[in-house]
Every structure is written in structure tokens, then in C-alpha cells.
Automatic annotation (TrEMBL):
EC top class named in words: ligase
The protein's Enzyme Commission number: 6.1.1.15
PANTHER family cross-referenced by the UniProt entry: MITOCHONDRIAL RIBOSOME PROTEIN L39/PROLYL-TRNA LIGASE FAMILY MEMBER, PROLINE--TRNA LIGASE
Superkingdom, taxonomy of origin: Bacteria
MF terms (GO), sorted A to Z: ATP binding; proline-tRNA ligase activity
A single GO BP: prolyl-tRNA aminoacylation
Reactions that this protein is recorded to catalyse: tRNA(Pro) + L-proline + ATP = L-prolyl-tRNA(Pro) + AMP + diphosphate
Any one annotated GO CC term: cytosol
Protein name: Proline--tRNA ligase
Pfam families for this protein: HGTP_anticodon (PF03129), tRNA-synt_2b (PF00587)
Domain Aminoacyl-transfer RNA synthetases class-II family profile: 34-315
Alphabetically ordered keywords of this record: Aminoacyl-tRNA synthetase, ATP-binding, Ligase, Nucleotide-binding, Protein biosynthesis
């Protein structure tokens, strides 16, 4: 991609009403654009990052046998009334009347509709287990949408739902998904700690995946030795005794919840009539679990924990481009470096702009945050070389023109 052709431009200043570091850097870099509080557009750079995150998630969902689908945003009031959530979730769920005076709702999660749809396909123990997921836009009437991508009113969620005949099967599958979650966060490049959180009806705890960060709205107590934590929401003497944890080994931290996995039991299957016939001919409710990740929140979290004064420092797996190539010389040498790199399959952003100073180009490279910066200048060309610097390091080295591809 040539910067001279790019749809977006970097901005020197972030909007003054935007306080969250993730949003300020992402807006300045041209990754997202703010539409209103809690609503952002993903611009070309931002979409590249988001798609890389989503693809990592997809690969790991495939490993646990998840089948991708895409459900509707519009919600059928009747099925939400069946579980009581049309009323109990009123504060978070967007609900309104359309021009025909019909009640409409927008999905903020999809347990009800997926249980309703599963009724068409699950009727026997032979149909179980099953797991489906989507990466889809949710709407929530969030009261405090001040943290940039961390808390959207319109935001992307990966939601996986699994269906089981019995508790053992669910417990085993749940652990597989927890492992998949750990792999996802590791591959994305953040360190997320599995955290005991409030479990609801069916299990003692749910599991959240929390990333330690100052801006985080959650408070967790981290057990470094076990690489586990407990959310303040459930933290008390009884829980500590239950986990056999000693208070003195725990550190209190602010954190961002990037994922949450839940055993739902029969909370949704029973009221919605999602049942199966077991091997002895008895009718039983299907046992369910749900597993969420916010890809947009995850992207914002990466920026929060991986940046400096100058800009973003993208982990390689989700960087918009691997290489940021800067030309400080108006000749065809840099063009050739770009073509060679692109032909070798490297993802390269090429600052070929002729109306920018070296300082402006360096500042943009730091702001955008690609892992490798390569500079082609008169000085480097005298040595048949380019200057190569990693975004997260200070020093650069000279690399021979002929050796660039191998040095990436
Ligand atoms: P929170 O407590 O932070 O509001 P939640 O517990 O309501 O989140 P879940 O319903 O468990 O969130 O949603 C699953 C995942 O979706 C969360 O772990 C988070 O990564 C993401 N998510 C939830 N709400 C938002 C939001 N408003 N904006 C962006 N991502 C979100
Ligand atoms: Mg949650």
C-alpha cells in the first residue's frame, strides 16, 4: 500500500472529547473514526487489524469444532419474553416500535435466538454435542461509553454456543474452549489471565479473561504463581478458602475483560423448549454454554498495553502491515525495494509521499506502529543498503539491499 494513495491521513491531534488512549491513537493513526459516543467506523488500517484478530479467532474456533454462522441483529420479541429477558434486559437492549407499531429489539447477545434455531436440528442424543459461533455486530445501550473501543454501543462480538447432552460433556468441552481462548490471546499478543468470576445459576464461577491495564473497569486479584485471578465481584473469604488461595499471594489490579465463558445449563433450553431424547427414550433439556470475545475491545486493549509516547506498537500477528518502508530519496530505488518486498509476499506500507519531511514520515511510522521500519535514503544507498529498525527498539542497523527479504 502506498501512503500517497491511502484513503486516510494521520492526524496531529486527537478529538478533544476523546480521553481514552486507545481511541486517541487509533483515530490519529487513521484506524477508526468516531461517529458518536460508543460508535466507531473501522477504516482501512483498522479493518486490517480487526480481520487479523478475527481470523485468529476463527482458526481457534475451528480447532474446537465450532461452525461459523451469522444470525440476525433484529430480535423476535416472543422468544425473549419466553426467558423473561425482554423485560429484564430492557436497560441494555435497544427496543423500539417500528412504523407498524410492532416491537423490535436489537441483539446484544444471542442465547435466545440460537436456542430457538437449534430446536429445528437437535432432537436426539445422537444430535449432540454441537457448537456454533459468529462474529457479529451487537448493540448495547451502554451507560458509560467513554473508553473508546473498549465499550461500544455498537460493537463486534464473537459468540460461540455449545449444546450438550450431559454435564460431563459440557465440562470437558468448556475446558477445551478455555484453552482455545488462551491461545487466541497469546497469538494476538496480549497476556490475559483466566479469572474466576460470577457464575450465575449453573456453575459456581464463570471464567473471564482479563488483561491488566490501568484503564480497565474491572478489579481483579492476581495469583501470579498460578497465573489465575479472581474478580472482585466474587472475591471474599469463602471464595479464597474454596480456591485454597492465600490472600498474601494476591495482587490487586485494574483490568479489561476481553473474554467471558459461561456454563448456562438449561436456563435457555428449558423455557424455549430445546430438548432431546436420551438413549432410554426420556425427554431432557439440552445443556448449553456460551463463550464471548470482543474483537474490537481486544484491539483497543492491545493499543492500551502496547504503545509509547509516539504511538502504537503492534504485535506482529495483528499489525496492519509488517513493514513500514520510508523513502527519503526521490529516485526509483525505494520503488524497487517496495516492489521486491511486495513480490516476496511481505505486507508493506510504503511512504512514497513527496510532500512530507523526513520528520513527518518518521512520526507517522511511529504512530501507525508497524513492527519493522525500513528507510531508504541517499546516505543508505551510498552503502547499497537500507536502514532497518524495529518499532519497539531504539537502534537501527544497515542491511544490504540484496539481503532485505531474508532479514525480515
Ligand atoms: P462488561 O462487563 O465489560 O460490560 P459483559 O460481561 O457485559 O462486559 P459479555 O456479555 O460477557 O460482556 O460479552 C462478551 C464479550 O464481549 C466481553 O468479554 C467483551 O470482550 C465484549 N464486550 C462486551 N460488551 C462490550 C462493549 N460494550 N463494547 C465492546 N466489547 C464488548
Ligand atoms: Mg462478561
Amino acid at each position: 500500500m502506498k501512503l500517497s494513495k491511502l484513503f486516510t491521513k494521520t492526524l496531529r491531534e486527537a478529538p478533544s472529547d476523546e480521553t481514552a488512549k486507545n481511541a486517541r491513537l487509533l483515530i490519529r493513526g487513521g484506524f477508526v473514526s468516531k461517529v458518536m459516543a460508543g460508535v466507531y467506523e473501522y477504516l482501512p488500517f483498522g479493518l486490517r487489524v480487526l480481520n487479523k484478530i478475527n481470523n485468529i479467532i476463527r482458526e481457534e474456533m475451528d480447532v474446537v469444532g465450532g461452525q461459523e454462522l451469522n444470525m440476525s441483529v433484529f430480535q423476535n420479541k416472543e422468544i425473549w419474553q419466553a426467558t423473561g429477558r425482554w423485560d429484564s434486559a430492557k436497560e441494555v437492549m435497544y427496543q423500539f416500535k417500528d412504523n407498524f407499531n410492532k416491537d423490535q429489539g436489537l441483539g446484544f447477545t444471542h442465547e435466545e435466538p440460537i436456542a430457538a434455531t437449534a430446536r429445528h436440528f437437535i432432537s436426539s442424543y445422537k444430535d449432540l454435542p454441537k457448537a456454533v459461533y459468529q462474529i457479529q455486530t451487537k448493540f448495547r445501550n451502554e451507560a458509560r461509553a467513554k473508553s473508546g473501543l473498549l465499550r461500544g454501543r455498537e460493537f463486534l462480538m464473537k459468540d460461540l454456543y455449545s449444546f450438550h447432552a450431559d454435564q460431563n460433556d459440557l465440562d470437558e468441552y468448556y475446558e477445551k474452549v478455555a484453552d482455545a481462548y488462551s491461545r487466541i490471546f497469546e497469538r494476538v499478543g496480549v497476556s490475559a489471565v483466566r479469572t474466576f468470576a460470577s457464575g450465575g445459576l449453573f456453575s459456581k464461577y464463570s471464567d473471564e479473561f482479563q488483561v491488566v491495564a490501568d484503564i480497565g473497569e474491572d478489579t481483579i486479584y492476581v495469583n501470579e504463581k498460578e497465573n489465575r485471578a479472581v474478580n472482585k465481584e466474587v472475591y471474599n473469604e469463602d471464595v479464597l478458602a474454596d480456591l485454597k488461595w492465600n490472600k498474601s499471594n494476591l495482587t490487586e489490579r485494574s483490568s479489561i475483560e476481553v473474554g467471558n465463558i459461561f456454563k448456562l445449563g438449561t436456563k435457555f433450553s428449558e423455557p424455549l423448549g430445546l430438548t432431546y431424547t436420551d438413549a432410554d427414550g426420556n425427554l431432557r433439556p439440552v445443556i448449553m454454554a456460551s463463550y464471548g470475545i470482543g474483537p474490537g475491545r481486544l484491539m483497543g486493549t492491545v493499543v492500551e498495553v502496547s504503545c509509547d509516547e509516539e504511538g502504537i506498537i503492534w504485535p506482529e500477528n495483528i499489525a496492519p502491515y509488517k513493514v513500514h518502508l520510508i523513502s527519503l530519496e526521490q529516485n526509483k530505488k525505494a520503488d524497487k525495494v517496495y516492489d521486491d518486498l511486495a513480490n516476496s509476499g511481505a505486507e508493506v506500507l510504503y511512504d512514497d509521499r513527496e510532500d512530507k519531511t523526513a520528520g513527518e514520515k518518521f512520526a507517522d511510522a511511529d504512530l501507525i506502529g508497524c513492527p519493522i521500519r525500513i528507510v531508504v535514503s541517499k546516505k543508505t544507498l551510498e552503502k547499497e543498503s537500507v536502514e532497518l529498525k524495529l518499532r519497539n527498539e531504539k537502534d537501527f542497523k544497515l542491511v544490504k539491499l540484496s539481503d532485505i527479504s531474508q532479514s525480515l
